[in-house]
C-alpha cells in the first residue's frame, strides 16, 4: 500500500498528515510491515529494516567499503 495526502494549503498540512497517520495505524494489522523501496517514508519506524530486510547488513557493509566518507547518504 502507498499512503499519500495532498493538502489545499500549507497551513492544513499538519492536520492532513495526522489524519493520514491515523489511517496507517488503523490498517497496520492488515499489512506486512515491509515497504517498497521506491516509495520512501522517512517517518516509518525502522525504515531501513522495512525496506531492505535481511539484506540490510550486507548493504551496510558494501556502503562502508565503497563510500567511507558518506558522500552518498539517505535524506
Short description:
This protein is mainly alpha-helical and 75 residues long. It has helices at residues 13-27, 47-52, 56-66. The chain starts with 12 loop residues before the first helix and ends in a 9-residue tail after the last helix.
Report what the structure shows:
With 75 residues, the protein is mainly alpha-helical. The protein has three helices and no strands. The chain has two domains: 1-31; 34-75, no CATH class. It is 43% helix and 0% strand. It is flat, with a radius of gyration of 16 Å. The model has no long low-confidence stretch (mean pLDDT 87).
Note the main attributes of this structure.
75 residues; mainly alpha; flat; 43% helix; single chain; 2 domains; 3 helices
Question: How are the elements arranged and paired?
Answer:
Blueprint: H1 13-27, H2 47-52, H3 56-66
Total strand count, please? 0
Major sheet size, sense and barrel closure = none
Number of domains: 2
Mean pLDDT: 87
Radius of gyration: 16 Å
Oligomer: single chain
Q: Helicity range of the residues? A: 40-55%
Class by helix and strand content?
Answer: mainly alpha
Taking the alpha carbons of the first and last residues, their distance comes to 22 Å
Order of helices and strands: HHH
Low-confidence stretches: none
The number of helical elements comes to 3
Outline type: flat
Amino acid at each position: 500500500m502507498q499512503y499519500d495526502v495532498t493538502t489545499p494549503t500549507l497551513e492544513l498540512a499538519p492536520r492532513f498528515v495526522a489524519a493520514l497517520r491515523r489511517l496507517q495505524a488503523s490498517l497496520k494489522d492488515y499489512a506486512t510491515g515491509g515497504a517498497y523501496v521506491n516509495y520512501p517514508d522517512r517517518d516509518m519506524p525502522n525504515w531501513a529494516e522495512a525496506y531492505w530486510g535481511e539484506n540490510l547488513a550486507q548493504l551496510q557493509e558494501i556502503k562502508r567499503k565503497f563510500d567511507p566518507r558518506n558522500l552518498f547518504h539517505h535524506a
